[in-house]
Amino acid sequence: MSGGFGPTRVMRRLDWAAPPPTVHREVLSALPAEPTSRPPLLFVHGAAHGAWCFAEHWLPAAAERGFPAYAVSLRGHGGSGGARRLGRTTMREYVHDVLQTIAELPSRPVRKVDKVRVLAERGSTTRGDRRLWLVQRVEKVDGVRHVHLRPL
How far is it, in rounded angstroms, from Cα 17 to Cα 36? Predict the structure, then answer.
């Protein structure tokens, strides 16, 4: 593709040829009382934790502010499967768990610290902005999603 922008790849070649073993993933959630168009938030724990560490405060707080909130327990942690081979679990398998969870969310989460490029309008022959921008916040006004950016 011209301009260096191609389709987003979710699955890498190795994941397609030799996917990590499948395990049950625990995903906890807290949804807003009213339907919302805000992007979902996905919480991913660190070492020796699970989705439970977000259940008491973070998930309800996000839902109260109108964000659908989800927390995943990576394999071998919390209520997810794979505990018997936890010592042999690779980073690739953890990444697979996160990507699978993102793929199952109702819409794509946009992170505050995402780095994005501003593309030319679809069908345009211009190249767009080649600089990287940092997402500061995303909000919806009158049915239109506005992304506030700052140059890197």
Answer: 38
